[in-house]
Design brief:
The protein is built from twelve helices and seven strands. By secondary structure, the chain is of the alpha/beta class.
Amino acid sequence: MFPLPLSNGFSMSAHRTPGSPPLALASGSSASPSPTPARPLGVPGAAFWKSLAAHLAIPLFLAAGMALSYLGAFHEPAPHDLHVAVVGDSPASMVFAQTLDDRADGKLHVETTPTHASAEKLVRDGDVAAAYETTATEATLVVASAASDTTAAAAQKIFLPIAYSQHLPFTVDDVVPVGEHDSTGQGLFFLMVALSVGAYASAIAIAAVTARIGIGWRMGIAALVSGVVAAIGVVVAEPVFQMIPNGVWGIWLVSWLYVFGIIAIGVGLHPVLGKWTTPALTLLFVMLNVTSCGGIFAAPFQPALFAGLHTFWNGAAFIDAVQSLAYFPGRQFGFDGLRLALWATAGLMLIVVVHGWSVRRTRIADETLAVTRDEEEQVVAA
């Protein structure tokens, strides 16, 4: 016997004779759950494979693109047309420089400079990667590790055996060393990576929220968010980790221009590409950008494709500009600023053109296109 509750707060007892079946607790209920129908065995149908391929298209694109770009750019760095100098204006110095150039077989471009002071100036200005000077008692290699620590190390590997063959002690004169809290000299490169990720992730968010407001507001919000993303990166780099020795405000301004170009392009592309916007931005600003910017290996150590991109891509312009501000005060970087401004202008023009297409209700663009959950996950994965 067990009590059954009543709606008025009282209860009654229900009796069951021995051997009788248990009472049902609810209408239509059963003592044992109904069996789950067995799934048919066999190969899934065509619709399943089509859906699987559609879901895997973007992840596989990212996997292949990242592997090809990173391994293609970094797997075998070797110098080609690396500009170096030999100090001295004597006939012997000129013959030595010409011999070194001939034996390098295109790996080096060797010139001469008359004095140690002129050699330092060439290195500081970025006209040569290193300068080699010999006297009767020693050999000296002039480098600037702040410009590229990997290039400075490669120059030492090139000239150290030469000094040994000349029976001269070898010393390195690092005229612009890396910062105290940036021992590899790659802190500015990783700042660029952080800004890139923040920029294209922000572009997707802005495209989602500003789809139904005026184009002017869309551009203004993109500019404002760019300043915030740039400020976050620069604040972490300098007050937190003390990686920027000079030109903090100038670096923030360059960072803002760099981030704004990426966000503007992302906002402009989303009405056209939809869920493929994140892969497209990853291609432009990670696969092709990080590998060609020169933050790890300078352009003379990159394969031809990435060395070519280095001449006009926005990441290379950013690295060159912030290096000048941080380590080489007085060095001109107007061309780098121009490249960043052109990328930002291209983003603004893209927003305007796509807005025109969307207003005319063409099939090319739709500014009201919603950001899907898949896109949000792609941003996180990328």
